[in-house]
Amino acid sequence: MTNERRSLTFFESLFYLWRVGPVVASVTLEGGVDAEVLERALRLLQRDHPLVRCSFRRTPDDVAIELADDGPGLELVAPGDNGLVRVLNTGLEDDRRLYRVTLAQGPESAVLSFAGDHAGSDARLNTLLLRRLLGHYADLLRGVESAPAGRSAFEGSLEEALLAAYRPGPVRAPEAGEPPLTLGAPTDAPGELAVRAFAFEPETTAALLAAARRDGVSLTNLLVGAMACAVRARFPEAGPLPVAPAFAVDLRGRVEPPIAPDAPFCCVARLVCSTGVDADDRPAEVGRRIGAQLKEALAQEEIQHRLVSQREVGEATPLPPISFMVSNIGVIEEYPVPEGLRITDSRWATTSRGPVPTLFGSTVAGRLTLDLVYDTAFHRTEVIEEVAKQFEAVLLTALD
Known about the structure:
It comes from Kitasatospora putterlickiae. About 30% of the residues lie in helices and about 25% in strands. By secondary structure, the protein is of the alpha+beta class.
């Protein structure tokens, strides 16, 4: 490995080979954005975070991330275009840039989208980089240009951090059990992605957080419980039925020493839980049961051992069947904006191709936003809409 390229690790190569695609962070800005100044801000970000200048290169021997002298420029797209859906559905090439930054500017507002390939990034990293991009933009408008940060594009990897603390072990196959409830129908190939969005004003968000604390669960577990109840509601059979949610777990703070928030690589992996859900279960009850499983699996460091083991054998560890996935990154530090601009919406998501719909969430300025991403080849929009309405109704019963 030189200072201009590094091969993808086994874990990263799975994202690349499975063509997972970008992790997109976007903000809607009320007011006009100076595209030329934003372009300069992007160059400063690429200077300080060289990963944003990188591309994938596939050879007969490996797939690598290579550093380029120049990064991608700011792309101007038509206003009114749904940046999240458009970027999620952008086709992928084998040799492609890791990052894409777009601006859709209308007469009164603009949508800024910051997309980084999941093989080299995740939501925590990309929302942080978007915040630093907006920070550079605000500084430049004030006539200030920050000094270079002197970062490298290649500062290790998640597997390197794990291998320093864990020994490889056997790859354990998932235990056989009753298949969980799913929403998707079988199909031969993935299709276009669609998004069902939710937004909760600060008062409702605060009330949901208070209700979760009162019931002894996290907000994420409350969301999982509500979605599990919504999925269960589509099936008329009596008695508890198995629902298997997956969590996206950020491993930065789960290794020693902890990985920095702006480390230039993906630090997220999935963990699957399962519980029986009855028709009259409340979301906090379901969330508490699932949360107990999650807590136990995290205490046993199940993900860390799995990732180290699969690297040793060179094949992905099979996961049990999944009903849906939830990835809530919690509170995001407010984005800096110059005078005259106001953020009216903030979202993030990544591709969720195949039969498993994924609920992506974050809280900015006290406002909880959620995006349910689903593959239209596997899911009918009317079914997702029914589940979404049920999810929201069930979630709000926690306030009763």
